[in-house]
Amino acid sequence: MLPLRSTLVVLGLAAPLASHAANLDLAAVNRYASQEQVTSITQFSDVKPTDWAYQALSNLVDRYGCVAGYPNGTFKGGQAMTRYEAAALLNACLDRVTETTDELKRLMKEFQKELAVLRGRVDGLEAKVGELEASQFSTTTKLSGLATFVVGANVFSGSAVNTAANTVNRAANEFNGRPRTPVPLPNGTTFNYDLQLTFDTSFNGKDLLHTNLRAGNFGRSVFGGEPHSLALSTLEVAFEEDAGPNVVGIDKLFYQWPIGSGFTATLGARVGQEDMLALWPSVYPSDTILNVMTVNGAPAAYSKNLGAGAGLWWQGNGFSISTNYVAANGDSGNPSVSVEDGGGGLGNRNSGATGSVQLGYQQEQWGLAAIWTYVQPETQFVPGTTPFTHSAIDHNLNAATSAWGLSAFWQPLRSGWLPSLSLGWGINTTTTSTPQPLGSLSTSQSWMVGLQWTDVFKKGNDFGFAVAQPVFATALSGGVTPNDGNYVWEWWYKIQVSDNISITPALIYLSRPLGQVTPSGESFSQFGGLVKTSFSF
């Protein structure tokens, strides 16, 4: 019987496998059998005619084509391996050999036990694959789901609060002097949910048909943006169909496919601006809380507008260029009536559209991007604006906003004391097609900084916090001085209970959520807490 070392060298079995028997790499074995065989011994840069096994290797290559090497053209005949690895490669070699010699018979007897184990594992895998193929609902579509529970409450304080009526007073209208009605304070405890079912379909392995079904009941919660004046506390997961709570609707439906070298095109009847950007310049957060903290410090530029749209991006050598157009009211066929009356369509003043161009660059640990977005009123609403800037950007039908954003991120290679850093800044200019009263919005800005630590106290658990100024007025027409400043904070800790369940307690603080609408000389702030539980499947 041949010694084991001689047997392995003769058969050319020193191929690139490093697993033990308990973790046998069947994929690597398959690659050995079908892709990595050489056709000439001269392909090995480290095998010379003077080597003692040269003739044996040459015979195996010429007679059976049954020798594999490394991608860099070396054989590495002295590399060690386990008996299971030898058996696995012998099994692959047998499939290519048409004549069983006495030497191969001896080898088969030598590795009889290991070959039986290997073939048993292969048979078991084939059976499991057969079961999966028989039970799957589609050979081209992958279904994933995310269910989120949110339990939380808020408290409000400041001299503008009317405790007896449980309301907050607002300043009079700055343009006509008329008083604004007080806002009821939503300080009760709420329990809301968001459910998403995502179908990702590929017809050729390179394209993607994305379908997202969604339902929720955040429509009457402050965490869902109600009342409208306190919408800065809207959560990223907050959702409710226009038809009402607990109604399942098509949230997104778009098709993506490659074009040539480095280009990707997107076309959708319901597609988000963020779906058509090659780079999202932030690694914060791993588990979202406030929506305003998810738009890279530039909510007007990264508005996540949703509707009918199309986009194209190019990527290469770390660089990317993205351009897209989204019309929130693109499904309407009457461009001549107002949005309130159902007007809209593509490419007109009632489209509720955004058009974006982004330049980006990304490496393993860091990335940055610059973006310009043209924003029409009546989009899906800019996430993270004060009441004053919201009215001017989103609801003034004679206005148009040019939004610029600059965002960047850095992250460590390993978890530890150093957190990841995500930051961004935005500046916006709003112009109108008709004369406006003095004190109307002309310039607004925003910024955000987010820090996140991974594997805190336990692997899989993350901690993070962020501070931001949502879009606030910094210049008004006629030289009027704005008073719209405010700050938003969030702190959270994600506890990864299992691979599919996480629990995230979080705190939020808004120093001046009404911004310029806060009564002169008075204060108003919001402090909230919540527990978010996510189930992925």
Can you describe what's shown?
Residues 1-24 and 31-35 have low confidence and may be disordered. The longest helix is centred in the first third of the chain and has 24 residues, at 112-135. The protein is α+β, with helices and mostly antiparallel strands and 537 residues long. Helix 4 packs across helix 6 (112-135). The protein has a 16-stranded antiparallel beta barrel. The chain contains seven helices and 19 strands. A hairpin with a 4-residue loop joins strand 17 and strand 18. The protein is 15% helix and 35% strand.
Summarize this structure briefly.
By secondary structure, the chain is an alpha+beta fold. It is built from 7 helices and 19 strands. α4 (83-94) crosses α6 (112-135).
Query: How many helices?
Result: 7
Strand content: 35-45%
Q: What shape does the CA trace take?
A: elongated
DSSP summary, beta strand count: 19
Described by its quaternary structure, the protein is single chain
SSE succession? HHHHHHEEEEEEEEEEEEHEEEEEEE
Q: Residue ranges: pLDDT <50 for 5 or more in a row?
A: 1-24, 31-35
Give Rg in angstroms.
31 Å
> Mean pLDDT, nearest integer?
88
Distance between the termini: 54 Å
Q: Which key phrases capture this entry?
A:
single chain; 537 residues; alpha+beta; 16-stranded antiparallel barrel; 3-stranded antiparallel β-sheet; 7 helices; disordered N terminus
